[in-house]
Amino acid sequence: MHIVITGGAGFLGARLARTLLARTAFSLAGAAPAPITRITLVDRAPAPADLATDARIAQVVGDLNELLANAPQRVLPEDASAVFHLAAAVSGECEADFDLGMRSNFAATHGLLEVCRQSGRAPVLVFSSSLAVFGSSPELPLPEVIQDQTLPTPLSSYGIQKVIGEQLVADYTRKGFIHGRSVRLMTVSVRPGKPNGAASGFFSGMFREPLAGLRAACPVPDATPVAIASPARTIEGLIRAAEASDAEWGLRIAVNLPSLSTTVGDMAAALGRVAGPAAVALLDRTPDPAIARIVKTWPGRFEWTRARALGLAADESVDAIIRDYVRENPDAVRAPAAA
Amino acid sequence: MHIVITGGAGFLGARLARTLLARTAFSLAGAAPAPITRITLVDRAPAPADLATDARIAQVVGDLNELLANAPQRVLPEDASAVFHLAAAVSGECEADFDLGMRSNFAATHGLLEVCRQSGRAPVLVFSSSLAVFGSSPELPLPEVIQDQTLPTPLSSYGIQKVIGEQLVADYTRKGFIHGRSVRLMTVSVRPGKPNGAASGFFSGMFREPLAGLRAACPVPDATPVAIASPARTIEGLIRAAEASDAEWGLRIAVNLPSLSTTVGDMAAALGRVAGPAAVALLDRTPDPAIARIVKTWPGRFEWTRARALGLAADESVDAIIRDYVRENPDAVRAPAAA
User: Fold this and answer.
1) Residue B172 · residue B178 · CB < 8 Å
2) What domains does chain A contain, in order, with CATH numbers?
3) Quick check: B251 and A155 CB within 8 A?
4) What is the C-alpha separation between B32 and B83, in angstroms, rounded?
5) A271 close contact with B: CB closer than 8 A
6) What is the CA angle A23-A28-A30, rounded to 5?
7) End-to-end Cα separation, chain A, in angstroms
8) Which chain B residues contact residue A309 at CB under 8 A?
9) In what helix (H) or strand (E) does residue B271 lie, and over which residues does it extend?
């Protein structure tokens, strides 16, 4: 089996690739299990060294829009039967640079769907949507708990572009051009590595940097609600979407992945319990209105009825999420904090 | 004031132009009333003679996508301050020809929004969306009554493309690129003239053809619910959307225009009351599964809270809708039926 991951050199893409490579066999859309013989990582950046040196990994390094226009068979090789579409410009970038978001999220997603359609092979396509499709405002407040069927009312260009992707995936699926599954990723924490341009970036940075002994921005009030999921739970959701048969998957509307409802204050407290008060003292609580403006519109409580029916679960606690990060990233954690 | 109407030579576009030309002054988005000095009709077809000979009418005849790409200033002249975007491929066409729909509805709407944005003048843009954004299925039944805030779950490519248009209009408005208003048109009946490719076409044909002494297809069961609006009520909705100030318009999500909830059987009965049993006898009740498959997913009952707050109302009765058509189209009605 040959699987494509767009954004495959990014944090989630690389982790997804590693998780898939560790599987002895993979059951795609309910079909009989088969070994994964190849994973193609499509990304602007080269893959991490461990993946780059794996014989089953192929890399296609380049701009996704250009590749789709000029070398579509490199993005979707002839024997590829599944695509995880993770490539995207992130929320903060899209808000600052409208054209970037429309190109990277709107046009690229449409272009990828067209390449899948033109292949005539109806590949499985897992589309990574986002909780950012939900935006709450005083004029149109969201319900207290978001369901799979709550009306998306995005308040960011990123959220709009993700809703449009969901709609396209639904119609390409209905028409039989792909076997599409849209999953709405929650706020992923703790992302390792460097900060990215996502408005939600501090939800990882507020753990990652203090654990490394560095100061970190935590620019919104303690009471700010947030629905988070660890990288492990997020990858589980993406993989389960690809494995589910059409009947198991059911409706073509997007599935909210499981999340743990917490607040920024509770997250800081968990950091203190795991890493001590010195870690909490590294949090810089200077408000950032640009970040707050986006983040405050995102809901903090979700129901994930369909995800639960697929066997998916949320993380147990924020403490567990932090401990997972410490265990998985020993080199990024200073010894005292990891103790 | 200079106003652009895409699809301006079509039935609704031409009627909108006539209605606007009859106004001595027009108040755009709550601004002070001003006379309409020019209306540009953009359409693949030439305008009807009465409009073509009006000195205030300018015609741009051509393919909208090509015009947007090659001569955007012809679609949005420098002094144009409002656009009614009515041009679209219709539901039946989009279902039969996926590329046509994606080009005419998805790409053209995005292209028009880009031209509006690039103008830097933030024109008022009224986007004609459709009740077809709502699709009911056994797996995901719609609520009995559709509200403005009901989740769209389109079951046709046309409906998907309209939802995407609504989302783009919302974001271009939020970003200040346009003053956008999306209105969801109900099933317009009675459309004069020739049948078009819309799956809903028979909702007009079942009145229009018998009134002209011709047989007409009425290919779905009597109990089929439908939410209809006369051409006059539909044009009122489009115009009110352009007139409303940003504050009056409020939310950026689409507005359901008012509709009269009826059924195919009640429509046939109304035809009998207005035009006699001979007219009803001209209805051909042979089922058409392709039409039924689309139409049966559309809801028949709407609430139009926001439209009502804007002063809009539904038609009084099906009988009144038919009588309006007879009065407005004397040449298309045979004398006995018009009696």
Assistant:
1) yes
2) 2-185+230-256 (3.40.50.720), 202-226+260-299+315-338 (3.90.25.10)
3) no
4) 18
5) no
6) 115
7) 42
8) none
9) helix B264-275
Distance, CA of B328 to chain centre = 18
Phi-psi region at A134: left, alpha or beta (left = phi > 0; alpha = psi -120 to 50): beta
Helix (H, G, I), strand (E, B) or coil at B183: strand
Residue B216: beta bridge partners?
B283
Q: Given an 8 Å threshold on Cβ–Cβ distance, is A163 in contact with B160?
A: no
> Model pTM?
0.94
Mean confidence (pLDDT) of chain A: 95
| Exposure of B41 in the CB half-sphere (CA atoms within 13 A) | 32
Q: CB contact, 8 Å: A139 with chain B? A: yes
Cα(A42)–Cα(A61) distance, rounded to whole angstroms?
Answer: 6
* Cross-chain Cβ contact B140/A251 below 8 Å: yes
B143 touches chain A (CB under 8 A): no
A338 pLDDT band, cuts 50/70/90, is very low
Positive or negative torsion for Cα B115, B44, B21, B228 = negative
| C-beta separation of B6 from B38 below 8 A | no
Is pLDDT of A70 > 90?
Answer: yes
Q: Which residue in A158, A172, A177, A298 is the catalytic one?
A: A158
Question: To 10 degrees, what angle do helices B264-275 and B202-211 make?
Answer: 20
Question: In the structure encoding, which two tokens stand for residue B306, read together?
Answer: 């926001």
Does B337 score more than 60 pLDDT?
Answer: no
Residue B295, SS3 per DSSP: helix
Kindly determine whether residue B151 and residue A154, on different chains, have CB atoms separated by under 8 Å.
no
d(CA B315, CA B229): 6
Amino acid at B162: K
Enumerate the β-bridge partners of residue A188: A229
Q: What are phi and psi of B157, to 5 degrees?
A: -60, -40
Nearest CA in chain B to A165: B164
Task: Write the DSSP assignment of B3-52 as a string of letters.
Answer: EEEETTTSHHHHHHHHHHHT-S-B--TTPPPB---EEEEEESSPPPHHHH
Can A172 be counted among the known catalytic residues? no
One-letter amino acid identity for A144?
E
Q: What is the predicted pLDDT for the residue at B183?
A: 98
Burial of B331 (0-12, 13-18, 19+ CB in 10 A): exposed
- Using the structure block, give the residue that is written with the tokens 């020739």: B194
- Judge whether B160 is closer than 8 Å to chain A, CB to CB: yes
Q: Is A233 buried (19+), middle (13-18) or exposed (0-12) by CB count in 10 A?
A: buried
Alpha-carbon distance A121 to nearest alpha carbon in chain B (angstroms): 17
Q: What is the 3-state secondary structure (H, E, C) of chain A?
A: CEEEEECCCCHHHHHHHHHHHCCCCECCCCCCCECCCEEEEEECCCCCHHHHCCCCEEEEECCHHHHHHHCHHHHCCCCEEEEEECCCCCHHHHHHCHHHHHHHHHHHHHHHHHHHHHHCCCCEEEEEEEHHHCCCCCCCCCCCCECCCCCCCCCCHHHHHHHHHHHHHHHHHHCCCCEEEEEEECEECCCCCCCCCCCCCHHHHHHHHHHCCCCEECCCCCCCEEEEECHHHHHHHHHHHHHCCHHHHCCCCCEECCCEEEEHHHHHHHHHHHHCHHHHCCEECCCCHHHHHHHCCCCCCECCHHHHHCCCCCCCCHHHHHHHHHHHCHHHCCHHHHC
> Does A118 contact chain B (CB < 8 Å)?
no
> Would the ipTM clear 0.90, i.e. be above it?
yes
A95-127, pLDDT tens digit by residue? 999 999 999 999 999 999 999 999 999 999 999
Residue type, A127: F
Work out the minimum CA distance from B149 to partner chain A, whole angstroms.
Answer: 7
How much is the pLDDT for B336?
57
A163/B contact by beta carbon, under 8 A: yes
